[in-house]
Specification:
Elements: E1 2-12, E2 21-22, E3 27-35, E4 41-48, H1 53-61, E5 79-82, H2 89-97, E6 101-103, H3 131-140, H4 144-147, E7 148-149, H5 154-174
Parallel strand pairs: 1-5, 1-7, 5-6
Antiparallel strand pairs: 1-3, 2-3, 3-4
């Protein structure tokens, strides 16, 4: 089961909202989603817009909970596919320590002929399936409430993201 991690920034229309970080554009929040190979969201993290995505990737990976028939839910996918914004040594070592294979292009020295220590020169065949997480964000954009964050608190924004994911999963089951 390969998973993809990506984030998206939402602009806030609220002037006095709490919990949203300030950016050059204004207040906002970031929605980080983990999807499985078919595009179904299995993890969600909503945070302030101020921190960079690569610092939020570890917290997003900790939100993975896939139910099993018996026992505790699974929290470890086989592989994590991420874009080059998430490439950093701390994330790679954390993912490898958990027994997950990281697949992400390196940010440094792209034109180099030899790979840098332990990093593959090419990202691999599974990186081609990163479009599934972008498709998930495109699907989330069909819900007008998720495009612009109208809520004052981050937990309200997260709740509406979860409601949208539940509606999408129910709709997918009924088809």
């Amino acid at each position: 089961m390969g998973t993809c991690v990506s984030g998206r920034q939402l602009r806030s229309s609220e002037k006095r909202g709490t919990g949203g970080g300030t950016t050059k554009v204004g207040k906002g929040s970031k929605v980080m989603v983990v999807v499985d190979g078919t595009g179904v969201p299995i993890g969600l993290h909503v945070a302030s817009a101020h921190p960079h995505e690569r610092t939020l990737a570890e917290a997003t990976l900790r939100t993975i909970r896939v139910p099993r028939r018996r026992g505790r839910p699974s929290t470890r996918p086989n592989e994590v596919v991420a874009d080059n914004a998430d490439d950093r040594a701390a994330l790679r070592s954390d993912v490898r320590r958990r027994g997950i294979t990281p697949t992400m292009p390196s940010r440094e020295r792209r034109n180099r002929q030899r790979p840098k220590r332990g990093r593959p020169l090419r990202t691999g065949a599974s990186y081609q399936h990163r479009w599934t997480v972008e498709r998930c964000f495109a699907w989330m954009d069909t819900y007008r409430r998720l495009v612009v964050r109208y809520d004052r608190h981050l937990h309200s924004s997260r709740a509406f993201c979860l409601v949208a994911i539940m509606l999408w999963c129910v709709d997918r089951i009924l088809k």
